[in-house]
Automatic annotation (TrEMBL):
<dbReference type="InterPro" id="IPR029058">
    <property type="entry name" value="AB_hydrolase_fold"/>
</dbReference>
<protein>
    <submittedName>
        <fullName>Pimeloyl-ACP methyl ester carboxylesterase</fullName>
    </submittedName>
</protein>
<dbReference type="InterPro" id="IPR000073">
    <property type="entry name" value="AB_hydrolase_1"/>
</dbReference>
<dbReference type="InterPro" id="IPR045889">
    <property type="entry name" value="MES/HNL"/>
</dbReference>
<feature type="domain" description="AB hydrolase-1">
    <location>
        <begin position="5"/>
        <end position="228"/>
    </location>
</feature>
<dbReference type="Pfam" id="PF12697">
    <property type="entry name" value="Abhydrolase_6"/>
</dbReference>
């Protein structure tokens, strides 16, 4: 049985993996779905100090304090940057990295420049610059169309601290990080938009570590069975 740590993307929380978590646990796997500081059930902790390093520390500390090893570390969207940083710090605890529809770059803004438009819709609350304010349009942007899923998601989404999206990712142990097997699961929608690094996608395809799911960006919500099935396959690879 495998141990999974599922890291969410911007504006979400560990709650977004509920369907996938239940499917994996039903198979006997151990699953952790932490919520990053300032988001979801930890939204009361948002502050001007919350940045990418804060979120990397959230995940690295979980791996250490729970004494986890050979973890399948999964990052959705922005979470893909977070898991890279965590694996760079505590790579000896990570067995595999899975990028779940997660574009890569030195920062999220570099990976996905369209975020700069989202910043125009943001605002400063209690000294914190926030983006991704919840709305039905935002949920549809995430590719979720089922009315029940929309009703479930909307009250749980929280604004995201811009600072964490803008901060560049700094890696100190790149050779060790690159030695960890990496897998890529992408949504058909994001692939069609061309937001993923073509070289990384080609490398993953050549290695047999690439899958496409016919779904929108939040594929852990809209296609949980497909995601859980691939995560099980990856763990046993």
């Amino acid at each position: 049985m495998a141990t999974y740590v599922l890291v969410h993307g911007a504006g979400h929380g560990g709650w977004c993996y509920r369907k996938v978590t239940r499917l994996l646990e039903a198979e006997g796997h151990t699953v952790y779905a932490p919520t990053l500081a300032g988001l979801g059930d930890r939204s009361h902790l948002v502050s001007p100090d919350v940045d990418l390093d804060t979120h990397i520390t959230d995940v690295a500390n979980l791996l250490f304090y729970e004494d986890l090893s050979d973890v399948v570390l999964v990052g959705h969207s922005y979470g893909g940057t977070v898991i890279q940083g965590a694996a760079d710090r505590v790579g000896d605890r990570v067995g595999k990295l899975v990028f779940l529809d997660a574009p890569e770059g030195r920062s999220q803004v570099e990976a996905f420049p369209a975020l700069l438009k989202e910043r125009e819709n943001g605002r400063v609350v209690d000294g914190v610059e926030l983006v991704f304010f919840p709305s039905e349009d935002l949920v549809r942007f995430f590719g979720v169309t089922d009315p029940e899923d929309i009703a479930w998601m909307l009250p749980r989404l929280t604004p995201h601290p811009w600072k964490s999206l803008e901060q560049p990712l700094v890696l100190n142990n790149r050779p060790a990080l690159e030695a960890i097997p990496q897998y890529r699961i992408v949504s058909a929608t994001s692939l069609a938009l061309g937001i993923h690094n073509e070289d990384l996608m080609a490398k993953a395809r050549a290695e047999g570590r690439f899958w496409e799911i016919d779904s929108g960006h939040d594929l852990m919500i809209s296609a949980p069975e497909a995601v859980a099935g691939l995560l099980t396959e990856i763990a046993s690879a």
